[in-house]
Design brief:
By secondary structure, the protein is α/β, with parallel strands linked by helices. The chain contains 13 helices and 13 strands. Strands 1, 2, 3, 4, 5, 6, 12 and 13 form an 8-stranded mixed beta sheet that branches. Strands 9-8-7-10-11 form a 5-stranded mixed beta sheet. One of its GO terms (molecular function) is phosphotransferase activity, alcohol group as acceptor.
Length: 388
């Protein structure tokens, strides 16, 4: 089955789209990359998303407009990828763009909103689309995150020793697993989200990220502010747990560092990078893992990766490429796998990772150009993933 997986993460820097040939035989899933591309949002869409993200206020008119724009952008990505690869997919999985994740005062997830109207994709491609992937897990008591843990478990669950998979996107999340262990996964805290918000605000939008960590590398960590940042109550919550831009945003940074005009940007970036490293290290150390496999934008930041390796030694810090998965492509692959499982009647969530009361089949199907036709259900769920 040819499946296209697409996602725009909490950094909303663009759409990652990957096409994979996926099959299952004797309980082993095989996934082979056909092709992958990243698509930047058009400027007017990116700017409108930025203005609508928490903690800023928005209105239903803006949400409606964005739902259409983001759907059109995902449709553009799906059409372009299909043409580039000369492939007609059997299924397209669209995560869309998360704009709000509702966590109540008891730290329970009550709702999650990913926009990007899927009918734009179905109409443009003629292919069945799976969307609204997270909500079903929330309905049964989960956080709807980190859903990528299904990929981590299939890849790493057979390891003899405890190992962990770390995603450094806008938010950092981790999955800990190994033979005989009940897997656990949760959002640790901010990764690139605060770093990107700081540099974007300081440059008035001229720069959206710290290329190769060069700015942070030139700064000095403010230990006093770092200590206050590490006192954030979220870090003390028990897993499973999830967070996002509803908590970690630009006003959060100015609350600690003061007005932007007073910043020495190198020191601000150095301190925020160290916050990511320290929060990740404090959590990973709890599980005494032998190896940590890193994906996401942060895995391409040599300063962050070097700091993690030094802080976590003797734990071996590797990228997901050592497992045959390009770190940039992990989430696209993960959602393609979830789509394959949903189409074959199998759950795509792990209750011990999301906090849900049970595993559920994820997402809602939108038919393509013809009637909705799904393959025969799998009798049992796969227990292992092989990257072809």
């Amino acid at each position: 089955m040819k499946v296209i997986g697409m996602i725009s993460g909490t950094s909303f820097d663009g759409i990652d789209a990957g096409c994979y040939e996926i099959s299952v035989s004797d309980g082993v899933m095989s996934a082979e990359l056909i092709g992958f591309e990243s698509y930047e949002y058009q400027d007017h869409v990116h700017d409108l998303i930025a203005k609508a993200m928490p903690p800023q206020m928005t209105d239903l008119e803006t949400v409606c407009i964005l739902d259409t724009y983001v759907g059109q952008e995902f449709a553009r990505a799906a059409v372009d990828l299909s043409k580039r690869l000369n492939v007609t997919a059997d299924l397209i999985v669209s995560h869309g763009q998360t704009v709000y994740h509702w966590i109540d005062s008891d730290h329970k997830a009550r709702g999650t909103l990913q926009i990007g109207e899927p009918t734009w994709i179905a109409e443009a491609t003629g292919v069945t689309v799976l969307s609204n992937i997270r909500s079903r897990d929330v309905v049964v008591g989960g956080h709807g995150a980190p859903l990528v843990s299904i990929l981590d478990q299939l890849l790493l669950g057979a390891h003899d020793e405890p190992v962990a998979a770390l995603n450094l996107g806008g938010i950092s999340n981790v999955t800990v697993t190994g033979k005989g262990l009940t897997p656990i996964a949760y959002d640790i805290g901010p990764a690139n989200g605060l770093l990107d918000a700081a540099i974007s605000a300081y440059t008035n939008g001229a720069s959206h990220y710290d290329d190769a960590g060069k700015i942070a590398a030139a700064g000095t960590v403010n230990q006093e502010i770092l200590k206050k940042l590490l006192a954030e109550p979220y870090y003390a919550l028990s897993a499973p747990k999830s967070t996002g831009k509803e908590l970690f945003h630009l006003p959060y940074i100015t609350d600690h560092f003061g007005d932007i005009s007073t910043w020495k940007i190198e020191d601000v970036m150095a301190t925020l990078l160290e916050l990511t490293v320290e929060t990740v290290a404090l959590d990973v150390e709890k599980y005494k893992v032998s190896q940590l496999f890193v994906a996401g934008g942060g895995s391409a930041n040599p300063v962050m990766m070097a700091a993690l390796a030094a802080r976590l030694a003797p734990c071996e810090v590797l990228t997901m490429s050592s497992l045959g998965v390009d770190p940039r492509q992990k989430e696209a692959l993960a959602f393609a796998i979830m789509g394959y499982l949903s189409a074959h009647g199998q759950p795509g969530s792990i209750p011990s990772c999301t906090g849900a009361g049970k595993a559920t089949i994820l997402g809602s199907f939108t038919p393509g150009s013809g009637p909705l036709q799904l393959p025969a259900p799998l009798a049992t769920a796969p227990t292992k993933l092989v990257i072809a």
